């Protein structure tokens, strides 16, 4: 049996965390014994779901010390103690190439033979020169130490791995799959939730995403403001939490949109909200391959994405792309035009055919892990 150390920073309600829990759920634990490791012990959104599948988190630190030097010392010390359990594989979900210098390279030095790097992003919005240099160096290091390379899209691979590895397709393309049946359009669910929020006859724009710079919430609010000026029965539902939540709330108040924007918070029934929405709006600065885009399409929604997001996510043809340099008014007019009077179809078969079923995605990953282990012992 293979023993795998799987590091995910936390178990909040983000896309990376969702995929990580799904990987745990569908891996064959009689073949791959997976230990979910997080930075801290705080109880978070996906803890209960992980426990439902027979897992539990192992924190590197019980709580975060205030002193940075103390933090680094105990982090490395506890990481070393954990790795004495003699894992065969260390698996890391990374957003930036330079993150390899934090944990993967330490695990390699501490004796883990097989390093797996899973790329979840396609760029970042930071132009600091030092960070660019570190990202370039990080790609080289990843090329040398990562025996297993995984990416959610070609763009995510190009961002994380050396160019020659990408050209030779020396990585596993693991699409961000979903539980497709949960998201199939359901009229009864739609009506129930719209009645609950007293928005039966309103035009509902939905967004699911962490309140962070990447998700571009202020521009999203600007777009909604213009939609609301034209369609006074419009409502914007925002699902998620994050470090910029308070700042976004203040921006909503400043725009006098309090009564038309609903902040829902973290929810474990995103699939039901997808039924409730009329359109899905997602003007992110960058993404890898957003799993919420797959979920929205599975619910039959028309989606409006920034053109920085990979076209690989446009499975159904229901994603419309716009440039972020376009005005909020132009975005709003386009959403109103394309978002009216369309049929919510069942795309579950198509989404499965295109490789976005989460069970199929995890089985591909499992085969890759088992094959790599076999090759290492030849």
TrEMBL record:
Keywords: Transferase. The keyword Protease does not apply. GO terms for molecular function: glycosyltransferase activity. Residues 190-307 form the Glycosyl transferase family domain. InterPro entries: Glyco_trans_1 (IPR001296), Glycosyltransferase_grp1 (IPR050194). Gene3D superfamilies: Glycogen Phosphorylase B (3.40.50.2000). This is Glycosyltransferase family 1 protein. It comes from Clostridium innocuum.
